[in-house]
Amino acid sequence: MSQGITLNKITKLIGLGFLSDLKALFARKLVKEDFIKFLRKFVVPIASIFLFIGLWHLGAKSLYNTEANYKIEKALTERGQVAADEMKACIASGDVSCQPNTLPSPAQVWGSFQTLLEDHKVISSDKAAFIEKTAALNETRVAEGKDAIVYTGRPSFVDQIFTSLKTVFAGFLLALFIAVPIGVVIGLSKTLRSSVNWLIQIFKPVSPVVWLLLVFMIVKTLTKNSNSDSAFIISFISVGLCSMWATLVNTAMGVSSVDKDYINVAKVLKLGAFQKVFKVILPSSLPLIFTGLRITLSVAWMVLIAIELLAQSPGLGSFVWEEFQNGAIDSNSKIIVAMFVIGGIGFLLDRIMLTIQNMVSFNKNDGI
Amino acid sequence: MSTNTINNDLVTENGIVFPSEVMLDLKHLKKVYPTPKGDYTVLEDLNLQIMKEEFVTIIGHSGCGKTTMLSMIAGLNEISGGNISVLGNHIKGPGPDRGVIFQSPSLMPWMTSLQNVLLGVNQVFPHATKSQRNDIAKYYLQKVGLEDAFNKKASELSQGMQQRVGIARAFAIKPKVLLLDEPFGMLDSLTRGELQDILIEIWNKEKITAVMITHDVDEAIFLADRVVMMTSGPKAKIGDILNINFERPRTRKSVLEHNDYYKYRKHLIDFLEH
Ligand SMILES: Nc1ncnc2c1ncn2[C@@H]1O[C@H](COP(=O)(O)OP(=O)(O)OP(=O)(O)O)[C@@H](O)[C@H]1O
Ligand SMILES: [Mg+2]
């Protein structure tokens, strides 16, 4: 019994309340209304995913045909009937050289996904082998005071994911450490709030690209004489600056709109400034701060791809860009794999933030 | 009204003697709220003296300025004219010598009931040891019947239980004056009765001078030594004061059965309906 309650609590907390419905279904405890709820929460979403894949398949097929017809037509007008027939046969045979280049189908994307995983396996075993081979050598090199030899091969797709996560995490922490303290200070003072309001309103809508260029100008100069990883530094700082505004605004709002009753209690008890901030104001604005942080993380993840792409720092963004430049036969489907991975990770990050948000908020409300 | 002053002590009709000391003194109190349509004078030339260990209830029409007056005593609302003194000293802003029980319990929902009470106790008894402070907080929580809910989050308590914590928090800081603004207004009548009993039980023991606003005539009579009636605004002042001469400790039953009960009740209702 108590176990059931905790399971319920946990699934609610992470916003997956339907899991307990599912459990109840298997325990044959569901009455009719529950069954309808289960249909709505579980069956309908899955059905809509299948519907989406179906539509995608049909759309891709029609785009493929359009592109193929265009190719045949072009061969006909430029090089005559024979060339057109050859082109037709070539396309039908599935030859790589003449495939229409368009939106890939779900099956192709799935294939590319598996290729990428295979590729990762190969690369990581290569890397392991390399490290094993150079281990002894590196030991002596380090002993002699020389730099160790490191693996410099091409990163796999999975490596790119982790690089991106590292960057977004660093950017998020930067946003957290800048936006929350400033937000608290701004929230506490009406004068300060109105004085920085304009600045915030102006900087908030600035595009990630501009932030990147700005950070680039500064970091380039600062890191001139050091051999630090400036691409990483530039991209994580840009991500942090782009994404911190939601947290800044929400923190300031939370702090400035603390329930008047709480402030009165603090006044009657004559709490000192420190106690007032840490015992009353911050706890009561935590839910809003976390709402801000949740938006910040999702914005950070969204702009990260664009920033990596522009800053040429490794990660999913540059993966997408390279594939696009590459133009190989499976490049398009790899880009779409990346799209789903980016979306999926974004969703996961949001869930994690939602869970934390639900844990710290004192009015428990089920997130969507 | 029917009070005679002998050696400065306040003696009521059936001989209850209050110590002479004036705890709370409101002199020519005035409150003006600036509004877009010009100044609005809520209170003007309001005079009221409340003795030490006295329980005073305040009734008056909605919007007449009861909350305004109480929050001025608490120091949470600026005084536009006149002054308020506690034991002869003019008040300057809020302070723990005047404990407040608000209409909404105003507990910090992220804290447990014990932490909520401790928030005040820690502030008022900074030199006590941690366990002494814990004991004080627990003592008052027990007094309000929450011995099983020390570690419950305030947000998990019912309205009635939250207001019990509010009562414990107010008494635990041992204020000179206790200010209550319709503390039971949001509760159902059964819970309200329970909390009145709890309040009066603790009060009988601690005898903290109390000023309580209420809309409930029976509550006003049951709890008070004097019921203060305010005139309707604007420019509200004290309209009438009724001494309640029931002996203490009182029970609800003895009060209801008392011959004077309906006389008192009629007096108050006549005032409100005049
Ligand atoms: N901050 C304010 N600014 C302007 N007017 C105010 C303000 N606070 C209260 N008032 C006005 O002052 C009058 C008295 O308000 P107050 O809240 O003191 O009444 P009350 O007697 O406590 O009423 P109730 O019994 O409904 O609680 C009301 O007319 C109200 O509209
Ligand atoms: Mg009021």
Automatic annotation (TrEMBL), chain A:
Membrane topology according to the record = Multi-pass membrane protein
Q: Which GO terms describe its biological process?
A: transmembrane transport
Q: Which domain of life is it from?
A: Bacteria
Q: Which Pfam families match?
A: BPD_transp_1 (PF00528)
Where, if anywhere, are coiled coils annotated? none
- What range(s) does the ABC transmembrane type-1 domain occupy? 161-353
* Claim: Transmembrane is one of the keywords in the record: yes
| Keywords of the record | Cell membrane, Membrane, Transmembrane, Transmembrane helix, Transport
The transmembrane segments are 38-58, 167-186, 198-219, 231-253, 286-311, 331-349
A cellular component term from Gene Ontology for this protein is: plasma membrane
Cellular location of this protein? Cell membrane
- Family note: Belongs to the binding-protein-dependent transport system permease family.
Q: Per its UniProt record, what PANTHER family does this chain match?
A: ALKANE SULFONATE ABC TRANSPORTER-RELATED, MEMBRANE SUBUNIT (PTHR30151), NITRATE IMPORT PERMEASE PROTEIN NRTB (PTHR30151:SF7)
Write the protein's name: Nitrate/nitrite transport system permease protein
From TrEMBL, chain B:
Keyword Magnesium in the entry? The reply is: no
Residue ranges of domain ABC transporter in the record: 24-257
Q: Predominant location of this chain?
A: membrane
Any single GO CC term annotated in Swiss-Prot or TrEMBL for this entry:
plasma membrane
Keywords on record: ATP-binding, Cell membrane, Membrane, Nucleotide-binding, Transport
What is the protein named?
A: Nitrate/nitrite transport system ATP-binding protein
Q: Which InterPro entries match?
A: AAA+_ATPase, ABC_transporter-like_ATP-bd, ABC_transporter-like_CS, ABC_transporter_ATP-bind, NO3_transporter_ATP-bd-like, P-loop_NTPase
What is one Pfam family matched by this protein? ABC_tran
Among its keywords, does the record have Transport?
Answer: yes
**Which GO molecular function entries does the Swiss-Prot or TrEMBL record give?**
ATP binding; ATP hydrolysis activity; nitrate transmembrane transporter activity
